[in-house]
Design a protein that fits this description.
alpha/beta, about 290 residues, six-stranded mixed sheet
């Protein structure tokens, strides 16, 4: 996108998955009818170990009602708090499942922990497309840019699509702050630098976050702007330097519990949303490593 061009404005529909506080987006080009789905969620009941597609079907209904064509199913990272519905959506709607090209680093970190099956390749080959930092692509006629934003994980990718940027778990609404950095390969120093890169975008750039926890009981929200973040983000507003942020983030992370769905989510999402392979009795299993985390 040339610096002198006015950015294109895609149509953006947000969907909120209450059980995991996740925000998912359908980003459409009104001129061509093409769209991208970002950070979809598969329903999962950890008590019964049953999956369902109710939430994903709400995305399907929207895409069909708007007569959109799915070109992309984008993941900002390997989520530790929800299971991806990417394979289901691809089967129903089509599209390429894409993620950042550093995903192998995350897969490698968890292969031994989960003692994955022989033949699993920690190279991202489970995904249709691995996007590089600075790589340009398009949603219909709307120009898009992949921006590597490591820190929460080493493979986090934000997607700038027209005048909007989708930041996954890197940055939250200003009153909630930023993502934790204590997972394998995470780095508070890296996430600070990633966020400053995002906040160097034009002030009116729309920012769409991957989760909202509605602090203080306010209504759920998922859209903000670069200007609002620079003025008010409780962790990284203008004037907070890197050293102060790193100390705050490190101290805060040391007090956090693990996400409730981290064990099933990682095992599924590192396989591009596919469930673990069926064993010789015809059943799929989620492994629970004891005394590891």
């Amino acid at each position: 996108m040339a610096a002198t061009d006015s950015p294109q404005k895609p149509d953006i529909a947000g969907f909120y998955h209450g059980p995991t506080s996740s925000c998912c987006f359908v980003v459409g080009d009104p001129a061509t009818g093409a769209c991208a789905i970002i950070d979809s969620v598969l329903d999962f009941d950890p008590v019964s170990a049953r999956t369902a597609t109710d939430f994903a079907d709400s995305l399907v209904d929207h895409v069909r009602a708007q007569r959109l064509r799915v070109d992309w199913i984008l993941e900002t990272h390997i989520h530790a708090d929800h299971l991806s519905a990417a394979p289901y959506l691809k089967d129903v709607l089509g599209g390429q499942v894409a993620i950042g090209d550093h995903i192998g680093e995350v897969q490698e970190a968890f292969c031994d922990i989960f003692n994955v099956e022989d033949g699993f390749r920690a190279d991202g080959s489970q995904f249709d497309r691995l996007l590089k930092d600075g790589e340009r692509f398009a949603v219909g006629a709307v120009e898009a840019l992949a921006m590597r934003t490591p820190g929460h994980t080493p493979a986090c990718m934000s997607y700038r699509i027209g005048d909007a940027v989708f930041v996954g778990d890197t940055l939250f609404m200003p009153d909630y702050g930023t993502a934790r950095c204590d997972f394998p390969g995470g780095s508070a120093r890296e996430i600070y630098r990633s966020i400053r890169r995002l906040l160097a975008l034009p002030p009116d750039t729309r920012i769409f976050v991957g989760h909202d926890y509605a602090p203080g009981g306010r209504p759920v929200a998922w859209e903000t702007t670069v200007a609002q973040q620079r003025a008010a983000n409780k962790h990284v507003r203008d004037g907070i330097d890197e050293a102060s942020f790193v100390k705050m983030r490190t101290d805060r992370d040391a007090e956090l519990d693990l996400p409730a769905l981290i064990l099933p989510a990682i095992q599924v999402n590192m396989r591009a949303g596919q469930l673990p392979p069926t064993e010789d009795n015809g059943v799929r299993y989620i492994k629970i490593p004891l005394n590891t985390f």
